[in-house]
Amino acid sequence: MPLLHHLDQGQGRPLVILHGLFGTLDNWQSLARRWATEADLRVISVDLRNHGRSFHSPEHTYALMAQDVLDLFDHLQLGADTTLMGHSMGGKVAMRLALDHPERLAKLIVVDIAPRFSDMEHQDDIVAGLQAVDFTTCTNRQEADAALAKYVPNMGTRQFLLKNLYRREDNTFAWRINLDVLAARLSAIGESTTSTAPFLKPALFIRGGKSDYITAEDKLHGIPALFPHSQVATVVDAGHWVHAEKPEEVFELVKAFALS
């Protein structure tokens, strides 16, 4: 497989960032720049397969996505002092890599996702909205937004999704994501993370106070079972996109943990 598209900035201890479903490395750029410049970290932001500017593939499993990231580690010659952070789907990729290859990491950060099964039914409207955009007639961003709005009323969510819109060389629009494959693999994207052996290094789980992706049960049982040296930090008044809603709090949490 080709190498994942990534952005490498700063110098110091490595921090690798993996975005969530329908996201791109761009979602993390303002924070990534700050960690590189203000926290003296080497920050590598990644586009996962079937997302952003990375390659498209008919396969979309956590085992393969973790291997993609591992291949990038090898290419960049990242050492065992690396902190790996992932949000949502990217968090499950990060957990998979940490559990399978603990020797490659110093620390793990997971943003608003638990190891258990995640019901992906709430993504159906988003998929329907993305599929409803007719690129044979769509001539600008506003028309794409109007088509999306019939299925996705929340403007913030639409702005996040529209980051995937780009203009091709023939001047028509398209999605950067591999929408057909992601739509077909939604249930697999929600699958639980399991392992015969726990990850015995430090792990930080950051949850949004208004999000239900990490529950009290996850905090008490599900997370410690696989990550016994973990802590869960709750960002008050934040939903699932914690880093977009409360960037200052996430900046400080990650900086303190990665440098400790």
Automatic annotation (TrEMBL):
Pfam families named in the record: Abhydrolase_1
UniProt keyword annotation of Hydrolase present: yes
AB hydrolase-1 domain segment(s): 14-247
Listed InterPro entries: AB_hydrolase_1, AB_hydrolase_fold, Epox_hydrolase-like
Single GO MF descriptor: hydrolase activity
Swiss-Prot/TrEMBL keywords: Hydrolase
Name of the protein in its database record: Alpha/beta fold hydrolase
